[in-house]
Amino acid sequence: MPIRALRRRVHEIARQIVRQHTSPARLAVAVWVGAIVGCTPLFGLHLPLCIALAFLLGLNQVVVYGAANISIPPLVPLIAFSSVQLGARLLGGSWMPIGLHDVTWRSAPAFAKSFFVNWLVGGAVVGATIGAVGAAVTYAIARARRRHHPPPAPTAEERTAALLDEAARRYRGLHPRFSVYAKMKYRMDPCYRAILPHVAPGTLTVDLGTGLGMLPVVIALAGEGRRAVGVEWDKEKLAAGKHAARELPEVELRDGDARAAELPPCDVITLVDMLHYYDAEAQRALLARCRAALRPGGRILVREGDAERRGGAHWTRWIERLAVRLGWNRGPSVRFRPVAELVADLEALGLAVRVDEVAGRLHPGNVLLVADAPR
After folding, report:
1. Three-state DSSP class for 258?
2. Could you tell me which of 169, 89, 170, 179 has the C-alpha nearest to residue 126?
3. Burial class for 246, CB neighbours closer than 10 Å (0-12, 13-18, 19+)
4. What's residue 221's pLDDT?
5. CB 337: neighbour CB atoms within 10 A?
6. Cβ burial, residue 281 (10 Å; 0-12/13-18/19+)
7. How far apart are CA 107 and CA 95, in angstroms?
8. What are phi and psi of 203, to 5 degrees?
């Protein structure tokens, strides 16, 4: 990647981190969470804890870590003493004696353990108390600032991020293996951001091997007359998808095998990480069925890993094979093919094909094949 493009990407990521989740309520919660982390004795882990909690709770990472810096050197002794004493009172019903005469070589390990546990428990309470005050002040300032200085119109990236957050919330209430998976995948897999711009308003999309129905849900939430049909043969995943798609009449999730399911005439067909479950001949037959269902000017979108790529792409292919062995994905086998072969198969069907990169931090080596039918 050229230096200029890398610098631009770094600036975009930094701007996104700073500007995301900046509503008064979210900023207040970010301060509260950061203060709790900052008052714990987990020094050296504050930064990764703040990043992880901000990611999981949908909070501004910069604000969370900024609030955690309440534990600056001049305040650490006061926070430590208050936290240890409060923790001892809550856990043991009495104050903790702290003095040299209370520590001997024999009692030092037990004293250190008690000191740490008391600080951890008391620190959470002290941090929550301090954080509540800071959160109230932050909320008031942010609310007043927003009244006098309305936030700028969200960028396309910010609108998409908000859309994915809304989609992830629809999976709440499900078993954690579904709800947590959906939340993590929406945030970390770039395929949703890459596919949405290719789905025009007023179109019908068929998503084969839809899994939890995550792509159809996002497409429906994008509005403007977009509709989506998902086909999935894993009944547990299908039930989870129907839970997420409740009250979304634009989404229909069907039980079926993508190789045999009836495909309605449609404008877009998506195959995300599913072609590699079949051998080359079965892949060509499936692509031919997709081509036959496309309306004039329709589009097939294929997200796949390239079998010829090296480096981090090995990780992507290994994870996919592991998911099949563990039963998370029910593909009969895993057969990645060179992207050049997939391009040739699509072009043989009379489609104009281009290849876009959709590699993510956890999905290196993936590409998106955009295959357009003539009008």
Report:
1. coil
2. 89
3. exposed
4. 96
5. 18
6. exposed
7. 18
8. -105, 160
Collapsing DSSP to helix, strand or coil, 107 comes out as coil
Beta-carbon-side half-sphere exposure of residue 351 (alpha carbons within 13 Å):
29
* Cβ-contact 228, 215 below 8 angstroms: yes
Buried b (16+ CB within 10 A) or exposed e, 134-173: bbeebbeebeeeeeeeeeeeeeeebebbebbeebbebbee
102-140 pLDDT, tens digit per residue, is 555 665 677 778 889 998 999 999 999 999 999 999 999
| Helix/strand/coil for 277 | helix
**101 has pLDDT over 60:** no
Measured CA angle at 90 (ends 86, 96), to 5 deg:
55
Q: Number of helices (H) and strands (E), helices first, in the chain?
A: 14, 7
H helix or E strand, kind and range, residue 298:
strand 294-305
Cα–Cα–Cα angle for 40, 44, 46, rounded to 5 degrees: 50
Whole-angstrom Cα distance, residue 26 to residue 32? 10
Q: Which strands sit side by side in the sheet containing 251-255, from one edge to the other?
A: 251-255, 227-232, 204-208, 266-272, 294-305, 366-372, 352-357
122 with 90: CB under 8 angstroms? Answer: yes
Question: Is the predicted pLDDT of residue 326 greater than 50, yes or no?
Answer: yes
- Domain residue limits, the chain: 20-148, 157-372
Six token digits for residue 100? 């040299």
Closest CA to 195 of 300, 351, 265, 287: 300
CB 143 within 8 A of CB 31: no
Q: Does domain 157-372 have CATH number 3.30.565.10?
A: no
287's CB contacts (< 8 A; 6+ apart) are 275, 300, 345, 346, 349
